[in-house]
């Protein structure tokens, strides 16, 4: 009797850990490259211990294949939720890249400190770090963790998820995130277009003037000023978008 109870408790912990561990591995702030892997492992294990007794989970399967199928299903759900959050947070990096291109700062590269790593535009890196800091300061990380917990009401444990629906929803989220990134960088696109039109007219009127070299420094200063003016509103707008999109996984 004690052995059966022990097996069922371990099975419940393992099943919850598959979903939570996969999600935390990708969640913004928790799944960044600069976060130690031991911390993520400890966090996923602690949440699994807390949630396992209060969730309605399937019974221990009789075969190894059924056990692996359950673990795979829970891991897919966790990767799906964490992947959606990663797509949402990448909106800021995409907007930063667009702004860098429009501001003639795309060649100013730094080491990417996010999960992707490699190199990225300095402005994009700054906006990505700022987004994570603001996200935690607004307690939206609680919303992400609650979304993972509430996902048990949307994706029942023991039921293999519909991968086609996952792909469809992920594509719609990716499309929405890219549109949001373009909207965030819209002021810089407009200003850059106006400046480029002005330089083109100047080159037509006075061909001897090197308009591109003359306007590079003023264009950078104008875009820096515009960034200073619009940054707070832009990030607040993005946080509202992040909150509304993630709310789809929350139970009313």
Please give the alpha-carbon distance between the first and last residues. 39 Å
Q: Tell me, what's the shape?
A: elongated
Specify the structural class: mainly alpha
Mean of residue pLDDT? 82
Poorly predicted spans: none
Count of discrete domains: 1
Strand order, main sheet: write it out. 1-2
Treating each run of at least 4 consecutive H or I residues as one helix, how many helices? 8
Proportion of helical residues: over 70%
Strand content: under 5%
What is the string of SSEs from the N terminus onward?
Answer: HHHEEHHHHH
Profile the largest sheet.
2 strands, antiparallel
* Gyration radius over CA: 23 Å
> What is the number of beta strands?
2
Describe the structure concisely:
Helix content is 74%, strand content 2%. It has 252 residues and is mainly alpha-helical.
3D structure, described in words:
The structure is a single chain. With 252 residues, the chain is mostly helical. The protein has one domain. It is 74% helix and 2% strand. It has eight helices and two strands, in the order αααββααααα. A two-stranded antiparallel sheet has the order 1-2. β1 and β2 form a beta hairpin. α1 packs across α2 and α3 runs antiparallel to α5. It starts with a helix and ends in a 6-residue tail after the last helix. The mean pLDDT is 82.
Which characteristics define this entry?
elongated, two-stranded antiparallel ribbon, 252 residues, mainly alpha
């Amino acid at each position: 009797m004690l052995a059966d109870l022990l097996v069922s408790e371990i099975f419940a912990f393992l099943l919850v850990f598959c979903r939570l561990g996969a999600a935390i591995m990708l969640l913004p702030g928790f799944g960044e490259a600069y976060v130690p892997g031991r911390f993520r492992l400890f966090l996923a294990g602690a949440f699994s211990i807390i949630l396992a007794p209060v969730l309605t989970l399937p019974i221990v399967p009789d075969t190894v294949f059924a056990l692996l199928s359950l673990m795979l299903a829970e891991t897919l759900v966790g990767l799906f939720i964490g992947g959606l959050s990663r797509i949402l947070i990448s909106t800021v990096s995409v907007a930063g890249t667009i702004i860098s291109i429009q501001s003639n700062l795309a060649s100013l590269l730094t080491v990417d400190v996010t999960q992707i790593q490699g190199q990225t535009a300095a402005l994009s890196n700054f906006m990505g770090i700022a987004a994570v800091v603001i996200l935690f300061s607004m307690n939206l990380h609680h919303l992400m963790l609650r979304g993972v917990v509430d996902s048990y009401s949307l994706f029942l444990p023991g039921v293999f998820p519909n991968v086609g629906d996952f792909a469809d929803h992920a594509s719609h989220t990716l499309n929405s995130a890219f549109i949001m990134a373009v909207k965030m960088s819209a002021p810089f696109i407009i200003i850059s277009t106006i400046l480029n039109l002005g330089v083109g007219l100047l080159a037509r009127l006075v061909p001897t003037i090197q308009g591109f070299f003359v306007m590079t420094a003023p264009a950078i200063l104008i875009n820096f000023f515009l960034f200073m003016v619009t940054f707070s509103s832009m990030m607040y707008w993005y946080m509202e978008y992040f909150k509304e999109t993630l709310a789809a996984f929350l139970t009313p």
